[in-house]
Batch of 3 targets.
Target 1
Amino acid sequence: MRLVVQADDYEAAVRFYRDVLGLPEQAAYSGADDAQVVILDAGRATLEIANPAQKRMIDDVEVGRQVAPSIRVAFEVDDTAATTDRLVAAGAEPVAPPTTTPWHSVNARLDAPAGLHITVFQELRTLDERVDLDGFGTDAGR
């Protein structure tokens, strides 16, 4: 899956996501009329589909109030607190500080360049450990 985002301040968005967040550049293209695009490797992609009640619950846990638009981009990181500090220093607006969630991750919310509302998260348990938690499931049995 590739998520395509229009950034009015292209250079600032590239600096933020590539240079500060650390997403490696896969390719970059330019064309007529100053057209530019950079493709950044964000690792494995998943599509998380939540009903309105789940979206409200996630906002309540991570932020304490409803803030996320219908699309939020989440990046897994090694250290949520350090990454949040770097992203804020690079221009992201903090929405909620690193918070340990009931699903055993440390999540922080930010409003980031290119108009994205993002979560940076650090898993505290492996997938194998999370499978046994209440409310966690997979379709491995299908």
Note: Strands lie at 25-31, 35-40, 73-76, 93-100, 105-112, 116-123.
Target 2
Amino acid sequence: MAYDYDPQNIFARILRGEIPNDTVLETEHTLVFRDIRPQTPHHLLVIPKGAYVCFDHFAAEASAEEIVDFHRTAARVCADLGISPGAGGDGFRTVSNAGLDAVQEVPHYHMHILAGRPLGPMLSRRD
């Protein structure tokens, strides 16, 4: 199934400069900025500059350069913030929601980086 990308989503508008953001790092293919409703002391959003709806869309259709840049940029931000366990930090969680069941709110692929406090279990149990 092909993905239909909505060029009016909020992240597309941020990338076009129509909506301001608190940029942490920008590269040729990736933008990292602070979430406007942070859930942790460090809550960042990592987005590709290309028009991808969710993780599997990005993984299947992005160029190798885009994929490498996205992940290396995320790693660089974690190191710069001092949250990477490999650099002595206390760690972080990455989250990427895809589709309705995962409650994806913005139809542009994005990865949350959450850090700065203990995060608890990954999912709460629903009986």
Note: The beta strands are 23-26, 30-34, 42-48, 92-95, 111-115.
Target 3
Amino acid sequence: MTNEDAIRELVCRYCRGIDRLDMELVRSCYHAGAIDHHTGFDGPVEEYIAWVEPKLRGFDGTMHLVANHLVEVVGDRALSETYGMAVHWGTPSDSPQLNFTSGFRYVDIVERRDGEWRILERYASREWTRAEAGLFVPREGPGPAGRRDREDYVYRLRDRLVTP
């Protein structure tokens, strides 16, 4: 795996952690002492995780979609710029505070230590937000349904993959 691929995978792991409410996975994406600058938060990663988890639990679900991703590696440090969209939904469905989509950018300084890339400093900016109140509808029938915890099927399948 190239450095660029490893850094892109890091961003995807972060998104999985956020969407599955797996704060241990989110924490593992940052180096100790990392700093996060988010809309509404600015400070150490430990405080960021304590701040973001209850906010996320206020939604019925979130889905982060990663798009353009540019990585510039210089030795054991890199600049990573990720464009994406984050969909948020909640109850009541007509609440614009609980039902919205945001376009975002993550601009990260990442560093490789002991062969592993992690975030050293993140700037997460909302480029735009669109209210989606009233547009979310219940599932149309039975079938696989994601969960917002480590009981989600992605974790069960991963466990089967690593422990056949």
Note: The radius of gyration is 17 Å.
